[in-house]
Structure formats: C-alpha cells, structure tokens
Structures
1.
Amino acid sequence: MSNLVVLRRRDALREKVREWKQQGFSVGLVPTMGALHEGHLSLVAKALQETDRVVATLFINPKQFNSAADLAAYPRTEDDDAAMLKAAGAHCLYVPDGDQIYPPGFATNISVSGVSEGLCGAFRPGHFDGVATIVAKLFLQSEADKAFFGEKDFQQLQVVRRMAQDLDIAVQIFGCPTVREADGLAMSSRNRRLSAKERAMAAVLPETLFAASNAIEAGESIPAVLHAARDKILAGGFKSVEYLELRDAATLTPITDELVRPARLLVAGFLGAVRLIDNVQVTPN
Amino acid sequence: MSNLVVLRRRDALREKVREWKQQGFSVGLVPTMGALHEGHLSLVAKALQETDRVVATLFINPKQFNSAADLAAYPRTEDDDAAMLKAAGAHCLYVPDGDQIYPPGFATNISVSGVSEGLCGAFRPGHFDGVATIVAKLFLQSEADKAFFGEKDFQQLQVVRRMAQDLDIAVQIFGCPTVREADGLAMSSRNRRLSAKERAMAAVLPETLFAASNAIEAGESIPAVLHAARDKILAGGFKSVEYLELRDAATLTPITDELVRPARLLVAGFLGAVRLIDNVQVTPN
C-alpha cells in the first residue's frame, strides 16, 4: 500500500510532478469524476505499469453535465475513492478546489468537431466541449507524461485523443479495455443508481452488443443487425435506445454499408431513469 | 549578430528548446505573422532582456483571416524577416510547414468569451478563435517560458492572457508598448499597403486618440469626447470608423460613464482599402 498524497491546489500538484520528474520519474494521469470502481482501478494498474508515479484526479466537472439533476445525482464518495486509490498503489489524488479549475472570469472553451458529433454528442449538447476543456486543463496542470482513459467512454477517448494531438499537448494517451461485471455489464458509477430489478435486466445491453458484433463480423447485413439489436434491447426492458450505431473506430464516421476497417458498435439507452452506454469492437475479416 | 537557427518542424523546435532548458537557459517566444518592422523588433529586444534564448515564429494563420482577399494580400517577406531577426539577436526562427500546425483531420477550436466580444471581435467573426487556437499551439509546441506581444493588438493581448490563464499554460505573458512612426502612426505590416497620400493622412488616428485620452483624463464627458473624436477621424480622411470605444483595460468591459479604473481607448477604421487599428491608455486621476 502506497502513501497517497492528497492535493487540492494546482501549484501544489505541479510542484509535486516537477519534483518527481527531476528525480527521473515518469508521471501517469488517471482523470476521474470519483465514484471509483474496478474500471478506474484497471486504469491505475495500467498507469503503474507504464509510469513511475501515478496521479488520479477527482473533479466532478459541471461543464460536462447537461442537466442540473444529473449533476446533483452524481455520486460523491471522496473518502472511499481515496482508500481505493491508496490500496491500488496510486501516489497522488488531486481533488482540485473549484477555483483551481474555474477561476473568476474563466472564459475559455475547447471544442472538437467531427469525433464529437453524433452519438452522445447529439444527445448531450456541450458535453464534449466540457470534457475537452477540463481534460486539457488537467493535462496542462499536471504536466503528466501519459494519461489513461477507459474505452467504456469510447467517443470521449477519441475526442481527448484529437484534442491533445491538435493542441500539441505533450502527453501520450492510452485507451484501456472496458471492465465488466460477471454478467457482462460495463462498470459505471451510474450502475449504482439502478434498482435491483433494473440491474438484473441490464445485461441485455452487452449481450446484444457482442452478439451484433459477431453477426456483423460474420457478414450479416449491418442495417438488419442494428435493427434487430435495437428491438432486442427494448424487449429486454430498456425504456429507450438513444443510438445504436456502427462507426469507424478511429474517426467515428458512420459505417452503414460494408465493414473494411476496424469499427466500433456503440449504444446508449435508458433503463428506467438511468442512462447507460456501452461499446464493443467490430473487426473486419 | 547571433547565429539564427531556422526550424520548420514542431519536433525540431521542441528538441531545441528542451536542449536549451537542460542547459539552464530560459526561453522567450515572439509570435509573428512576418512582415517584420520595428514593433516586432522591440518585442525581440524585450525578450532578450527577459530570457536567455529567443524564438520568433512566423506563421500566417489562415484561421484568423476573415476574407481570402485579406489573407492573399498579407505580405510575405521571410528572407527579410530572417535577416532582421538575426541582426536583432534572436536565436531561432520557427517557420512551421502547414502540416505542423494543421495536420490532416485537425478539428479543435479554442474560443474565449468576454474579452473577445465587441471591438475587432464584432467585425472579424472567428478571428479571435483563430488567434487563441494558434497561440495556444505555439505555446505548447515551443514550451517557452515567456511570450511577448505588442499592445498594438490590445484586444488580442487580453484574449491571449485569458486563454493562457484559463488553460493553465505555463507561460508568462508580457504586453509591450506600441512602437510608433515619427508622426505617431502605430507600426503595422498593413501600413505598407497605404498609398503615399493615405500614409500622409494616417496620423490623424493616433493624434485623435491621444487628444481624446487627455480630454477624458481631464474629466470631459466620455460620450461627447468619443463623438467628437469619431468626427475628427472621418474629417481627416478615413472612409469609416468601425469602432471607437473606451474599455476597462483588464476586462475590456465598456466604460460609458465614469473613469475609475485604468482604461483603454481603442479604434479601428478604414483608410482607403486598409484597415488600421490603434489604442492608447487612459488613466483615472
């Protein structure tokens, strides 16, 4: 178990990271909004493999929420999060005070066109601007060498990759595989808001995704597979499916016809009041 | 006269700057669009005072031009610029190839609300997004410690300050006084597009600004002074005045009533086909 340093000011974080770098250590960053689960810990584990010192961040970013209700409902569990990070071997937890992220007069916005359009971007206006802006800030505040994101939020990962490349931020970005519960449900802080009954139904989402991915890989018609998959998710108890789409894995441009390059099948839907997202790889033969 | 290194690739610039930093040198950045004049050289001189190694950049950024004609008409004088920088003692000229700034698939935009609104922002849609984005990139590509901008482009200076602060870019920004011709005209690469007759008339702009500043400082009515000054500029031969406004020097919020904090009087107008801008300080008693 490591000694976890908790910092709340940007300059303290920067000083700590520069001190580590002067000692010859590489530094990894794991940005989170807290409510940690095994998915986050897998990012910490990967960061510990790839770098010498690991900083996890916890900031519930109001700019990436579309509704005040969703922001208010977001779980806040800092003490548990710190204990989990310490046990996982992280070296630092950065929990910035609000003014360290949005000082008085803050007026700057980063937007990424293309990869942020459609999918979650269509249903959560401004969400990816909020993501791109906060992540750029965390990269630049920390001066980390490498940063670790889950493929669970696949569109977010592509937005972050594009932003960091376009703005010449000297950080290497790692996308890490989604961690799943025993029944296949992708781990998410939102899962704890599911009722027991909803939780029992939720596995229809990954089951359907994996089956659809296999069917597309086997050469079945993409529109037909997507249509049937949507029906299956709704029949499985989901209230709605916001999107279920096959996209190019790198550019996120839609694929409706033929599978020639690595693709991703992405879904978002509501189970009761809880919005769940997931995605799986689809590989051409 | 120094040895001027000319670099055209981001990674070559970064390597050079990191080499300097490892040697214990601080690094100053002077971003330009070329067509250098004494105003730019004053920034280089200030940078040489404040840092050990000075990088000037030359990139004519298409994203900050509103019209293709204005972009096409912008002077391109790289050889002259390099000779002037060498004579001035700069250590490096970075002239990035286009793909070093906007690689294929580039999709990221930085916008700054507040300080970018009104004034030039009202007449040049997208201009300050282009400025904020390119300057952020140059800061992050170069990893310079300090950067130097002219007060001639006062609104730009405030946009750059806000952007760098909001995005936690570890660069210190210096605003440097406008350099003027003998008759008071602010130096600008656009001045060379004035006809001899227009050039002779141009001094009405700074003369009027300084007189108006004095009148406001002496307690005359702000609206009355601005109204008379606008008339005087038009009577002096300007085809139009886009704006003539008194603004808070830090936040650029309009001042129409009483002068209580340091302010700036800013103007833009057309003399023939050439758009000229200028600004002067207005100090409360």
2.
Amino acid sequence: MRAGPSQEEIRRHNLGVLLRHVHLGGPTSRAELTTRMGLNRSTIMALTADLTAAGLVREELPRETGRAGRPSLVVRPESSRVYVLAFDIGVDRLVAARVGLGGVILDRYEAARPRGVFVLPDVVGRLAGFTTRMLRATGPDSVCVGAGVAFSGGVRSSDGFVRFSPNLGVAGVPLREELERALGLGVPVAVGNDANLGALAEQARGVGVDCRDLIYLHGDVGVGGGVITGGQLLGGHGGYGGEVGHMVVNEGGRPCGCGSQGCLEAEVGERALLEAAGRFGTRIGRDAVRAVVDAADRGDIVAQDALARVGDWLGLGVANLVNIFNPEIVIFGGMLREIYLGAAAQVRSRVATDALRACRENLRLRTPLLGDDTTLVGAAELAFAQVLADPLDALARVGA
Amino acid sequence: MRAGPSQEEIRRHNLGVLLRHVHLGGPTSRAELTTRMGLNRSTIMALTADLTAAGLVREELPRETGRAGRPSLVVRPESSRVYVLAFDIGVDRLVAARVGLGGVILDRYEAARPRGVFVLPDVVGRLAGFTTRMLRATGPDSVCVGAGVAFSGGVRSSDGFVRFSPNLGVAGVPLREELERALGLGVPVAVGNDANLGALAEQARGVGVDCRDLIYLHGDVGVGGGVITGGQLLGGHGGYGGEVGHMVVNEGGRPCGCGSQGCLEAEVGERALLEAAGRFGTRIGRDAVRAVVDAADRGDIVAQDALARVGDWLGLGVANLVNIFNPEIVIFGGMLREIYLGAAAQVRSRVATDALRACRENLRLRTPLLGDDTTLVGAAELAFAQVLADPLDALARVGA
C-alpha cells in the first residue's frame, strides 16, 4: 500500500494521459481535452506545450468549425515523426511494421513462414532485415520509441523469454534478448502473447473500445486467449494467464500439443476442423479453414457437420468463459473468425444452454474490427506503452 | 482516462492507506508507517492526528523497545469503538458478528438453517434479531461504520439484489434493500458473493497475504469461486464473474442445479460425493462429507473410490483455472476443504497432467487460514471498505 503520488508524478501522469487521448482519439481540441481530463485550460496548455517541445504532438488551427469566436487549437500526434516497430510472429507468417504515434501503419513487410520450424536466429534475422529496409525510408528527425512483438505462445513477462509454444514448435528461447541484439537500435523491445495483445488492440482501437471486461480468442493453429477484466489485462503470477485454449472441455477427448487431451484448442483448432471435414493433409492454414466454411455454406453436409461439431465445442468453451468472467464482449479473431462466422448459431445456442443467464445477459459476440492486423496493432500498442506512461522519461531513455 | 488526483484527494487517499495499514497489520509505530508509506514524518503525524481526532485510531507509547532514545509512538485501531456488522448467509447456517476495526470479532451469533427454504423476511428478520442483541452490548460511544453480507449466490454488484442461487433455492430478491430496512441503522449494507468475499478475506488476513493472483474455491452444497487477478477481485461486467462452479468439466455429465450438465459443482459438490459413496439421503452437510473422508481414511474402499472420483474432477477444474489464471495460490474452503484434504493426491496429479508447466510452476494449493470464518471475515472486510477508502467521508455518512 503506497501513499499518493507527488506533484511531479501527477504532472508526468497527466502528460501521459493527454498523449494517450490524442494517440487513441486522433486530433483533439484543447477545449475537448479540458473537458475529458477534468483539468483547467491553463494546465492543458502547459501540458501541451511540454509535449510539443518534446516533439510528440503539434498544435494547429482547426479546419472551418462553423462557429463564431476564436477556435480552440487542435492537438495532433506527430505520427510521421514518432513511431514504434511492431512485429507479429505467427505460425504461418511474420509481419513487421513501422507504426506512427496515433496508430498509423507507416510501412509494412510480411512473409510466409514454414510451419513447425522455428529457428530463433532465422526469425530474428528476418525481422531485423525488414527493419533495416523500413528504417531506410525514415526522415532524419524521426524517433523510434520502442518495439513490440506479438508471439504465438507463452512468454515470461519479466524478460520476454519464450517458455512454450507447442504450435510454433519452440520452447525456452530468449526472444527479447536476441531481437534487441539483432535490431541494435537501443530501444526497449517488449514481447507479449499474441492473444493478449489482440485483446488490448481491440479494446484500444477495435470492437471493444470502452469495454472493461473483454475476451479475445485468437485462432492460429491453436487457440489463445487474451482477457481484460475490470479494465486490466489478465497476466497472472508469471504472465502466463489467459491460456484458455488449454482449458479441457472434452475430458479424454482429442490429444493436444500440450500433452493433455480434450483442450479447447484440440477440439476447435484447425486440425480438428479439417479432420472432421475429411480434409486434413491436403491443404492447411486459413485458406483450408475458409474452404470448409465455404463448402458448408454451399450445402456440403460433411463440412456442415464438421463446422457444427467444432462450433459446439467452441460454444461450450465460450460458455465456461462467460460463467468465469461475465464479460461484456467475446471477440473471435484469427482463424476463429471464420469458424465463428460459419458456426455462430451453434456457438450461441451452446452459450444459451450452458452459461448462467446473469453472466450472459449483456454479452456480445463479435469478430475483430482490426481484422488480421489485431495482433500486430497490439504489438504496436505494447511498444507505445512506455511513452504513454511517462512521455518525457521514455524519450530520454531512447536518447531523443 | 482521468487526470491525476488533487491534493485533497491525495490526503484522503493517504488517510485511508494509513488506516488500512493498522487495520490489517495491527498496532504500528509511526516510524514503521513512515517507511511503509514512503511519506515523511510530519505528514504521517498530521494524518495520524486526523484519524485520532475522528476516533478511528489512538496513539500510545510502545511497550519496552529495548532501544535507547525516544521511542516512536504506536498507532492502534480503535477496535472496540469502531465496528462493522458482518453476516454470512450459507446453505446450512446463518452467522452474524460484530467485528471491530482491526478485524477483531467482538461478538457473534450463529444458527442452523433449514435447507432448500429461503424466505427473505425470515432470514432478514433473524439477522436483525441477532443485531439487536449484539447492539445491546455496545458502549455509548461506539460507532457502526457499515454492514457486509456474504451470500451463497449471484448478487448484482450495483444494488445487492440476488439474481440466482440454485442451492439456496432463491432468485430475484432485493436482499440489500430489505436488510437495510430491517436493520434500520442508517449504515450502508454491502452484499457480496460468499466465495468472492472469501478470496478477499484470505488475501487480507489469511493464507494469501501479499498474493496478487489468488483463487478461492468455496464448497457449500455447490461450488463458488472468488478470483483475485493482478490484485483486483474479478467482478465482470455485472458483478457475476467467478462462477467457476458452473464451468462444464464433464460434458454430458451429472445434471446441475443451473440447468446445465457436468458443471464442476455437479461433479464435485456434496451430492456427487455422497452419491458416489452410496450415502446420499442418510445424512447431509459438512458432517456427512467429513464422514466419507474419515471412512476413506480408515480403508473403506467405496469411500476411497468416491473421493478419488470427486478429487479427479476437482483436479481437472483446478487445472483449467490454473491455465486460465496462472494463480500463485488456490485455496479450498468450506466443504471443499475436507474434500481437498482427503483427495489431495488426485487433485495434484490431475493438475500436473492437465495444467501447463509455466502456469503451475509456482502454484501452491492450500486450505483457508481463517477456517470456517473465511466468508464471514470477507463480509466484514467488505463492510470496512468504505471507511478504508475515505475514512472521514465514511464517518460523515454514518453521522459519526
């Protein structure tokens, strides 16, 4: 139990809050900031002046307001100058992007990845290569304030060390350390679980804006979960919380990559769907999943049955999570987006049967607003976290 | 996103923090408070003076310190003067207590309750009757600062309205409103789910002190859950979160009072154990559960098998929760205490098989330090929440 903050801590906090407003909300008038932050005009002016001097925002006259009187200046994020690097390491692909303050994707590279092979130096090398190309396109006064990585597996929160990833086929690798070395930029690299970052992204800029109780389910080959409860990301003691894909829903069921049986991931993952549809081994990945959903849509009974079966287990898993978390929204991302769209009726029916009425009465089931960029955007938001928490300190740390 | 607090908000916050220190930690020297709160001596002295003037604490010379020099004054909670009322409404019993600041149980009444019958006016009337008797024993300057109720069911957080309680056989009753009316004390009554309050109690004063990620499982007839994640109680959108007893662990399994099948509560509740042991219908309640555990301990094979079966489902449920929450500690309270003590090997084995290594590596499985008072103590802590958040404001509200 700590005592309250000092005046200087409050000022730093307020600088971060103001910057977060324009980062998430876009250009905002001083008058609007005054209202939203509950501070007086002179304080807002002083905070804005500090952020402007630091090169994080700029003030401009607004376009025609249509109102009489002197218009309130608009505060804009310096999106093309201040940026982060965002990386997404998935089962089938690698993505690297340069994302400006305000969330603008300024530059982007993507490459397919072979499944089941994860050689740390190769992955890190490719991401560093993408970065070199992206940095060539930056202006002389641009500032990189951090880097974030979305990783499909369990990551130790303290040091970005990969503990497990059955679906990437890797465990026990110092991802953050190696990537920091390979980038050689002197900026902090933060690594997070992709589903956790997806949850943060959809809450910040997606379908879950303003939701304090949100679950994001991410299907890649397996199923990851990111849970926000009471406005906070569920991390757990070591940072491995949210592994809802390894909740056993079918005791004694299909074997799972984790060594257990009947995990949600084993019953609703890509392989479960493709096997149930009699299509395993021919094609894999998102296209194969989409093909099953399309076939079901065209009346293919085997595909319909497969989708219904998987949708039923998915619904049971969601019902359990609804009873446990009483969320406002559950978002189906990655490959689960296709499955949910194809089996929404089964999912909803199962939730209605197995979730307590009080826990589900205000529930919304949705797909991501950010589409396939959800986890990448989450990586960018993770990278921005420092500069939004304490803007001037974060700039000082990267030598800007 | 709000701006930082004002000076006056900080002072009020600090008064609450100081009071919380002595409430939870007992008599504490000013020097110790200075260190723990990170404030200077004069600030601590001013805060203590305010709390003393309000009659919430008093300062005393310490007993012999054995050190040279002037000893630091010790700040004590006014335990016999400032108190709350705590009520526990369980399936089989009603408990009412008067609990002094600092957590001292000053007075206590308990009565057995008939199962399956819940008549709101009767329950409220009995609790009000206990209260009248307890108030007769209070001194003229004593102050009641609140009342808290632990209830075995789902309670709407906004107004203490009972939404569901299959095991008490009641739903849709305005518990808080009726109890406030029956008590007629003009103090706020807060109602919470018993397992949620058990979690808070064990974190505040029990086996989970200093744990930020804790799960408390409470067995009554059914199974409730209280989850603290990142230091915060999981409430969910409407306050119904933590219903882990209605997580389906055995799809198509035993029917549950909620209408679903194979819920954790249906597979590990009192009835599941007694039926598996061939003892359902003869005796019920904690004694009957204890008798099965005792029989197993004496070598009764049917009882051993029953306990192993129930322990296995309990272990699967815990493994799921460990994957979802990555907790530091899981606490088995109420009737689950007996079951866990009788089937710890099965529970541990199942957790080892079905929970991810990273999620379980620092896990402790424990029974409550507060024993059968866990939920009652939680109700008291709920009642103290207001005075600990803003001591002077809370006193003003109760007219003290």
3.
Amino acid sequence: MTAVDPRRAAWAYLSQVVQGPCAPLNELVEAVGIEEAARAVRERDLPPVLQRRTEARRHIDTSTRDLELVARRGGRLVTPDDAEWPAWRMLGFAGIDVTRDKDGAAPLALWVLGEGSVTELTERAVAVVGTRAASSYGSTVTAEIVGELATQGFAIVSGGAFGIDGAAHRAALAVGGVSIAVLACGIERAYPTSHEKLLHTVASTGLVVSEYGPGVTPAKYKFLARNRLVAALSDAVLVVEAGWRSGARNTVKWGRRLGRPTLAVPGSVHSVASTGCHQMIRDGEARLVTRASEVIDEAGPLRLPVSGVEDGGRASDALVGDQLLVYEALPARGSRGPRELSEASGVPIDGVRGVLPLLELSGLIGSDETGWFRVRKRNR
Amino acid sequence: MTAVDPRRAAWAYLSQVVQGPCAPLNELVEAVGIEEAARAVRERDLPPVLQRRTEARRHIDTSTRDLELVARRGGRLVTPDDAEWPAWRMLGFAGIDVTRDKDGAAPLALWVLGEGSVTELTERAVAVVGTRAASSYGSTVTAEIVGELATQGFAIVSGGAFGIDGAAHRAALAVGGVSIAVLACGIERAYPTSHEKLLHTVASTGLVVSEYGPGVTPAKYKFLARNRLVAALSDAVLVVEAGWRSGARNTVKWGRRLGRPTLAVPGSVHSVASTGCHQMIRDGEARLVTRASEVIDEAGPLRLPVSGVEDGGRASDALVGDQLLVYEALPARGSRGPRELSEASGVPIDGVRGVLPLLELSGLIGSDETGWFRVRKRNR
C-alpha cells in the first residue's frame, strides 16, 4: 500500500462527496484550490448551496481505498492537475448558465480505465449514440459510418449501452479504431452487465471514463449527466436511431449547448426507431447526415482553427457560427471586452464567453488586461 | 362548327405562338389587352425581345381548330378572362425577377380537361411529386400520405409521370379525392402513353391541365416549365422520393421561389431513391415530413389569411414570413407605397409587390391612389 498524494486524495474525496456535476464546487476549487476546498467541505465551512450539496456524504472519505481499487484495475483518477486533463473539451461549459442548467458544469475529475491520454485520444472524436432498441438498419448504418470514421482516425465516444451504443463501440473495435465508453456508474463495474467483455475490450484499446467513483451505481439522472460528457468529449454528436423519448435526444441537447454540431441519420418513416431522429431534423435540432463523409464535414470545423494556424491557409477561414461572429467583431488593431464583443457580434454575452477561450487556444486571438485582440501571424 | 369568340381565339393563338412561359408577352397583354396583343404579334409590331420570341410561329393560327378539338374532348381554354382563372395562385410570380429566371412567369392561359373550376379545385392543394424510379417504400408512403391528404379535402397536384407522380394520382383517386395532372404537352395526348387510362380517370374526377396547346409534344425544357405550374397550383410541394438529379428538385426550386412550403420524406440511407430528399433536407431546401398531419401543418398558413377574415380570430395572426413583415409595416392609420413598405419591412421591393395582392385578396389590406392601407373590421 503506497502513500496517496494528498492533492489526489482531495480530488477523489470530493468526487465521491458530490457524485456528479456541481458548479459551485468547481468554483470553490478554482478559487481556493483542491485541498482547501476539501477541508472546507469536511468542516462544513461553506456557502449554503454547497452545504446542502455536500451534506449527505461529506463525512465519508474513501479516497485511499477508491484510488487503490481503481489502480488495481489498471485505472486512475484524471484531474485538472494532470497533463491529460481534456481542458479545452470542457471550455463549452463556460458558456452555460448553471442557474438555468444546473448540470451544465464541467466534471470535477474523471475516473479512467485505459492506457491512452484522455486529451490525446479525444483530439478527434465523434459521439455516436442512439436507442437501445436498435433496428437491424440502425446497427448496419452504425457499423458503416463508425467503421469509416474510426478508419479516418476519429475516436468513437458512446455510452456503452445496448443497441446503437454497443454497435458503435464494436464497429470502432472491428477496424482497430479507438472507442471511448462514458459510464453513469463507477468504472469498476460493467453496466449493462452483459457488456462486461465489450467494456473490457474498449478499455484495453481506448478508454472507459466516468465522473462517478468506485461503487457508484447507475441512476436515471446520472445517465443524463453522463450524456453531457459524451457530448463534451466529442467534436460532433451523431444519433443513428432514436425513439420519441430516447436519451440520445438528451445527448443532442448537450451537444447543442456545448456548441457541437449535432447530426442525425434518417430512416424509414415506418420505423419507430427513427422517429426521434426525424423529429430532431424537423425541428432543426440535428442536421441530416447519410454517411461518414458528411459527419466529417461537420466534425471538422471545431478543430480546424486549432491546427490551422500552423499550415498555409488562413486559420480564421475555418471559423463558423458564433466563433466567426465573435472573431469578426474584434478590431484589426486594439482590443475589446466581452460586453463590447457581444454588442458588436450579436452573440449573447454567455456565448461570447464560451467562444473566446476556444479562439485563444486556436492561436487566433489573445488577451491582456485591455481585453481580447487578434493575433497577427509573424510569418506572414 | 360554332363561331369562335375573337378574344378566346386571340388567347389560343398566342398560347400556340409562345408555347410556354413568356413574361414580355404577359406584360404586353396586360398593357394593351389580348386582342391588340394578338394583332401586334401577327403584324410583328413588337419590341425586339418579343419579335424573337414569336417569330417562329406567329404566322400560324390554329386557334379555331385547337379550341374545337379541345371542346370535342370535353375540354376548354381557361384564361384570365374567366372566373375560374386561378389568379391568386399566380401572384407568387410577381415576386420573381424574370431577367434572372426567364421562365418565372405566369402562364398566358391554361388548356384544361375536367369539369371542375380550376380555382375551386385548387383552393386547397398539395403537390406530391418524385422520381420515376420509385421504390416500393416510396409508392407505399405516397399512398399513405396522399390517401390522408385527399381524405382531408386536399387536391393532389402532380405531373402524371411514372413512379411517385402516378402513385400520387392513383392514391387520390382511390379515396375518391381530387387529383390534378399538369402536363408538359397538349392535353389531348397522354404522356406517358401507358398512363392514358389514368389521365382519363384524373380528368373525369379532377383536372388535366397544360399551358401547351393541342399538338405540342413534350420536351425537357417543357417539363421544367411545367414543374413551376405544379408548384403554383399548390399550397405546398411534397417530394416523396427523388434521386440525385430528379426533376422533383426542380419543382421544389419553383416552390421556394413561389413562397410555397417545400417538404421531403426521408428514407433509408441505402436507397438511391431517397438521396435527393436527403440532400434537400440537409441543404435546408425542404423540411423533413413523415406523415400527412405534418404536411397539413405546413400547407395551412398560406390559405389562412384568405379564409381567416370570416371567422372569429384575428386573420393577421395567420400571417407568416414576408406577408407578416409587410402587413406589420403598414401604419395603423394612413397608407404607404411599395417602396416605403420595402424600406420599413426589410422585404425587397419585388417581394413586397408579390405579397401585397395576396394580402388584398385576404381582405386584410386595401389600396387606393394614396397606396396600401390596413382594412378595419366593421364587426369588431
């Protein structure tokens, strides 16, 4: 039994206390650091909202046992302290108003099985999700599209469930691709149990990820919170089949909030497994796609600005939507603050706040005490 | 052999001279009247553009023979002189710039088989079109949707072709509904020939319509011009199946230019007969629909203003798009001209000109020498 790093123990402890998204705790950690936050929770030295949220489990600290248990399974706890923490994948949460969407917060930390770096394996990733009651059409189309996406180097992110999720994981594995399963329970347990072997294979070649610590059992609200991580870890969300009230529509909702392109495959109007896809396309919540190349067309732009700076083209040409509006609202010389950018671009202030860090990561813009400004290319 | 009315003979003569859409001739007829226009064409007393357009056939006058031939078949020539002329169905053409879309003109006149009034039978109408190479899925979905639409009192307008068109006509007939076939050749000939019996049945319960006079044979460009009339005579354009380069996409194009809702049915991504539908949905050219009730939701609004004045609700609540923008731009008291309305509403001047007559027909607005004004309801 090795000594556990006290910082890591603090992350593990708080992860098990809140079990799921908790914006006020994220803020506290950001403000005072993880160890001080853990002390404050332990001693109930907290604002009322966090007192309520931590009351039930703050007296339970299984951090040492949890970290050792996960280590024995070949896993680890990945936190914002770690190089592999997928920081830029979490930027979209900055634009979500948690007073309206209380689960719209970045995860505190992620429990992970699998050898690869979370950041590296999700560098190019597409979420492929759908109904548990997949039709043979849905399974076939999943296999075709995922096979091509995985061959082209996209990691396939899904929820490990029956139906479309399982078909997506299997199709990625079948072509030697990377698959990432995001669970709504502890990573040491297989859910559904009959997917134990599948999830083991996913972990051995890709990742099994959860924000829930060891021992946490699945529950309806955890699946919904899990769906936001499926969207966050991906460049686009693709629904192959979804019934009228499918959880996949919830994943699409998160995809839209996080600024991810959301896509759906059409099917027969006689198939109940396609009704959710058709409704989302009708309502403009998802764009119709029929094949992998159309998915790649959509999944591309989010990443292009990040890599575009190095190549010959103008990286800003790759910007779309709010990114483009905000970038264009920046003056050629001088800087602007988020409020001015919101007024100039017509993008709501929350949207501006969500887009700015991504543009900064892409190297297109920078910030200083005067505000945000366009970065000039030295080699041009 | 009865004497032919000289006005009617003039319409028939000019219809055979131009054979298809001819905006300059429409303008001449509007300016000087049909008989004077016919004299001017005969004597080549014309602006250059009309000289070119009428040169080939201006010396041929088969009007008496054509009118008699059509009469013997139980048909007639319907012109703007007639009460049954579907004037308000042609209003959308006012918004089309014929210097860019040279075929975007109302037909000069319509050759018609069938007893019903063109205006009355097209009062509620949906165009249902698609590929000649329909799949069994497409034929089944056509039968289901058309069966419901026709039962609900919508006339089904189509092109009389093989595949989806034929399935649409048959499905309307099967439930005792009204079907309207718009041909790209003279109404005395059946095209395709194996649809002779079908077209005969369509004419005996609905209408067979063409802007081409007796003896005119089909040609590619005539099918394209015909498609604009399929759209014009309908409240919405529905494509059930369309291949990549289907003529149905051309009908959708006309539907969009004429301000009709354009709709498409999804299908399997493996079906080539659905590729055109999927592409139109992807590109925002058509909205996805899966059943008749969704079609009716879309086909409704165009008509509501026209009938809404009589019932209890505020008719202007039914206005959408440019209609609403233009109506709202009218002052509560006093009147405005089209140019002022364009500036106030943001709708281009051509769009304003296209919308005003429809609003007037609906009884919501009126016009006098000072411009256009809102009509106040006496009984409110």
